[in-house]
Design goal:
This protein is α+β, with helices and mostly antiparallel strands and about 300 residues long. The protein folds into 2 domains: about 210 residues, no CATH class; about 70 residues, 2-Layer Sandwich (Alpha-Beta Plaits). Helices cover about 65% and strands about 10% of the residues. It is built from 11 helices and 4 strands. The model has no long low-confidence stretch (mean pLDDT about 80).
Length: about 300
């Protein structure tokens, strides 16, 4: 029971970190430049421009749209996903809404509409914050709300992975920016969308990166004991035969975190006589007990 509570707290802490990162990227960099790189933040920027009423701010529009999409998420994905997404999206919407009133951009810049005069630099920070924050929330089975929910729906019912589903779900909003704003903002938004999809892929792969070991050895019992008892991981052992020597050996297959991988690599090097043959590969798609579920 205690372990379950701690896991839940850890999950919501991770979601909070991801949500705050997204919120900072949206408020400080995306809103001031009218970047439309996808998400409800982009939809809010577009609708605020079309409506043209000062009281209807992007933060307010984003909150309303998120509520609608969250109802859809509850119906399709159920309570577990919906509650985590509700928390994250409300955190982002509330943070943006509060920042608009407590810390206006013009207050930070002394009257200037943006933090810097370099639109490309601000695009990089906007996309970096939004993509990294979204990837962090995806890693614990949640989303930052908005069109991330649309992307999750596309992934559920198509063969698209999460980064491509994000690209498809946000592409319409980016195309709309060409018509609502100007060519310059539209091109920046298109570049941002491409970068966002790429960064989400990279961050998720980095979070889940594991090391796959293929160890050909004649001292399998010793190595497996280290894996089981010291690293607390499992392993698969099979017979193998060398093509030149025709000598029978065992091949050990195991998957470890980066820290565990370093420990095993050091152990093999320090205790072996040079006859062990070890192949180490990277993977971020290990799905099963002790690792992750498919995103």
């Amino acid at each position: 029971m205690k372990s379950k509570i701690l896991d839940t707290l850890k999950t919501y802490l991770i979601i909070t970190i991801g949500g705050i990162i997204v919120s900072c990227g949206v408020y400080f960099f995306s809103f001031p430049n009218n970047f439309s790189t996808g998400g409800t933040s982009s939809l809010s920027v577009l609708l605020a421009k079309v409506i043209g009423i000062e009281a209807i701010t992007p933060g307010l529009i984003m909150a309303v749209v998120n509520v609608i999409l969250l109802i859809i998420a509850l119906i399709i994905f159920g309570k577990a996903f919906a509650f985590k997404t509700i928390y994250c999206s409300l955190l982002i919407s509330f943070s943006s809404f509060v920042l608009e009133r407590v810390l206006p951009i013009t207050k930070i810049t002394g009257g200037a509409p943006t933090i810097t005069d370099d639109a490309f630099l601000e695009l990089i920070f906007a996309i970096g914050c939004i993509a990294v924050g979204s990837a962090i929330t995806f890693s614990v089975g949640a989303s930052s709300g908005g069109t991330d929910i649309v992307a999750m729906i596309l992934k559920k019912y198509t063969n698209l992975d999460i980064s491509r589903a994000l690209f498809v779900s946000d592409a319409v909003l980016v195309l709309a920016s060409f018509f609502i704003f100007d060519l310059r903002i539209g091109l920046y938004s298109l570049l941002g969308l491409i970068l966002k999809s790429f960064i989400v892929d990279v961050v998720i792969d980095g979070i889940y990166l594991t090391k796959c070991f293929y160890i050909i050895t004649s001292r399998e019992n010793e190595i497996v004991e280290f894996i089981n008892n010291k690293l607390h991981r499992g392993a698969t052992v099979s017979m193998c035969t060398g093509s030149f020597t025709h000598e029978d050996k065992k091949i050990i297959i195991t998957v470890l975190s980066r820290t565990q991988a370093m420990q095993l690599k050091t152990y093999i090097q320090e205790t072996g006589d040079g006859s062990d043959f070890t192949i180490i590969t990277n993977s971020s798609d290990i799905i099963g007990k002790g690792f992750r579920s498919a995103i």
